[in-house]
Design goal:
about 210 residues, alpha+beta, 5-stranded antiparallel sheet, 5 strands
């Protein structure tokens, strides 16, 4: 019972971890929250699923929103902080670094104009960006979060919508999986009780009393 009640709490931890992710000095707590939430949710859903087929279906349903929720929450959190605290500056892309792994990522080095000494930043960018391109970068003077291009910050509302939709899907699918597992478990118990012979309990009591004598 306690395991079933803990499922909504576990489903909220990836969202909380994603919100903290972009904030400097909060990376480790963010990772811990996400990992605890994911492991907790998987263990709870699988332990409350009475059959292998139901476990596979439950994991398949929660897997996509479980990954999407912290990622969307990170993007939304960073964009919202820059909207509230950020300052826009014109810059030019001077270098693009490509990193290959499970996915290809791009980091653009930008140099701000209008200052006597060159000031540079590193901004996450995409394959469509080019060296020499003129861009507008939004940066937090307090360096609470990393800088972003202005069009990324303006998409904060969409990021918030995606994060909320992913979290709702995660809650719905995980609670639904637990509820279906509980129903199946109750049905199996009732079938076992009805299939048991009527005199089984009385015979068992008689055998216990005779052995006690």
């Amino acid at each position: 019972m306690l395991t079933a009640l803990s499922v909504p709490v576990a489903a909220l931890l990836p969202l909380a971890g994603g919100v903290l992710g972009p904030l400097r000095w909060m990376l480790v707590p963010s990772i811990v929250l996400c990992l605890v939430g994911v492991v907790w949710l998987l263990v709870a859903v699988m332990s409350l699923s009475p059959s292998a087929v139901l476990r596979r279906v439950a994991v398949a349903l929660v897997f996509a929103p479980m990954i999407a929720t912290p990622l969307c929450a990170m993007q939304a959190s960073q964009a919202l902080v820059l909207q509230a605290r950020g300052v826009s500056r014109s810059a030019a892309v001077t270098r693009i670094e490509v990193r290959h792994g499970k996915s290809t990522t791009y980091d653009c080095t930008v140099r701000y104009g209008g200052s006597a000494t060159p000031v540079t930043d590193t901004v996450s960018c995409g394959a469509e960006d080019r060296v020499g391109e003129h861009v507008v970068v939004v940066r937090d003077p307090g360096r609470l979060v990393d800088p972003e291009f202005d069009w990324q910050v303006s998409a904060a509302r969409a990021d918030v919508v995606f994060a909320v939709v992913s979290e709702i899907a995660l809650l719905v699918f995980s609670v639904l999986a637990v509820a279906v597992g509980a129903v199946v478990h109750l049905v199996r118990r009732r079938r076992a009780d009805t299939s048991r012979p009527a005199g089984t309990d009385s015979q068992t009591l008689q055998l216990r009393s005779s052995s006690a004598r």
